[in-house]
Amino acid sequence: MAKQRSTPREDSATAAPVSEPAPVASSSSYTVLARRYRPQNFSDLVGQEPVARALSNALSSNRVAHAYLFTGARGVGKTSTARILAKALNCIHGPTPNPCGICDICQSIATGEDVDVLEIDGASNRRIDEIRDIRSNVQYRPSRARFKIYIIDEVHMLTKEAFNALLKTLEEPPSHVKFIFATTEVEKVPITILSRCQRFDFAGIPLPRIVERLRAIVDREGLQADTDALELIARRAGGSMRDAQSLLDQLLAFGGDRLTADGVHQLLGTAGDERILGLVDAILTGDHKRTLDLLDEACVSGLQLGELVDQLLAYWRDLMVVQCGGIEGRDLSVPARHHETLRRHAQAVSLDAILAGLDVLSATRMRLRGSNHARILVEMALIRLGRLNDLTSLTQLASWLGQMRLDPRAAGGGPPTGQLGASRASSAAAAEEVKKKPLAGPESGPLTLSEANWPLLWQQIATALGPIATSQLSKANPPAIIGPNTLVFRFPAGYTKEREYASRPERLARLEEVLSRAIGQTCIVRIEEVSGSENVSQPVLESRSTVPSSRSLKEEVEKIPLIRRAVEVLGATIQRVDEGFGQSEGSA
Q1: Which fold has domain 454-586?
Q2: Distance between CA atoms of 192 and 285, rounded to whole angstroms?
Q3: What pLDDT, on the 0 to 100 scale, is given for residue 375?
Q4: Do residues 489 and 502 lie in contact, with contact meaning Cβ atoms separated by under 8 Å?
Q5: What is the pTM of this model?
Q6: How far is CA 167 from CA 120, 139, 464, 493, in A?
Q7: CATH number assigned to the domain covering 273-390
């Protein structure tokens, strides 16, 4: 009689509530919730309706394949679906999409004790000898059921030889044999196996469906639980129904008759929502003392630092989502009562700072693994999060350095401190104004394009073009022809890439623009390649012979106002000076 009370149909979370409470097992025979509330019919599967519909239709139309492969994350229903399919095939009323669950065959399959449904662990039976045993036994008909069914869990653990031994049997098994494989790592299953199976991908179970199922279980157990507590459990499970049920079982034993969010946080070692929001508020306002005080309180209360970083990472993800797509209809880590605070936090910080914060938190989470200085790493991460708004973006810094490059006279004094924090638009506008100004030498007025003035002109060209373009062009410096309004650079045959780089239309146009502003009239620049008959070795050698040693070249580069100012602002050191850069700047 007790067996009939706990029939699989009564274990369904989607079934109507029953008036008679579930029987209470003694402490010596207690069955965990994940087993007691395991789905027993296709209609009981939560979040896998497409798979259930496909298998039901196959049973109804008598189009059941000889081999199935169920893939998906842990705890989403792969093995349960395999058992349901086995019951549907071997039920005394079957094959049917709705097995009775009452007959002896259905009940023995549900408990994993049926002699004709063999559940094999692929991790511990992975060798070729076990597969040979299967090959030798498939020829025998089932003892009492309609089909002999092999359920191999974690099939990806089989060895290559075992897979090869299974190929022929899997492709053409006897009519009374069915194979059902389950795996969490389908990419490790050989393609020869995949091509012989019908594959079904099991998706992660949505959070609301897990909460609904947990609520039904709590009601069946005659206990009480807050919705916030169930949402925390469902979010912690990460789409796995089995993980959620196992955690609920643990928490029910810990929390007594009523399960609360505080109890969940206490058992898991996580921070409450109010503590997280208070810590985030201190971080975003730049109150470093309060940030460290709150972290100290959390550590004293037994909070796990890894869990704290995970929660902050989830909250920073919420900030990104809210700022990019709004708060309505989003899957957020904080309950609805804190959405207004989340919206306020999202408006108080820029998107670039949020993305940088995600990088800081994710890097910290990785560094915590195996580190003996977890608290130091977390403190450093929290302080860095509070300083993200004070940092200068790379775009602004590049724009400012571009202004200094275009006008080296401003590099000596440098811009005021506030200029580093100027907006991107104002920096770009200032750079455009500097770009429009004519390039002038030490004396006022334009220079004449001649060999005597070429070193000074080359200095201005190098300053305007930058080190990369100058380094490429320096392979043909000095020019072969320097005329009143014409300049011809000839690259030796060995510098094909440099010549192609300098010959691009946009770079030629830029070079002509810079040179025309320097000499005060229109100038035409041509890029040519030296033919093999021309003797260019001597000029090239002479040019290279004028290059100073690495130490003297470094000292000369350090004297350039732009470089000196960049070193002072960024706190950098010059580690290496390329030869091309030394030629372009050394001619100054």
Answers
A1: GMP Synthetase; Chain A, domain 3 (3.30.300)
A2: 58
A3: 92
A4: yes
A5: 0.62
A6: 17, 15, 68, 60
A7: 1.20.272.10
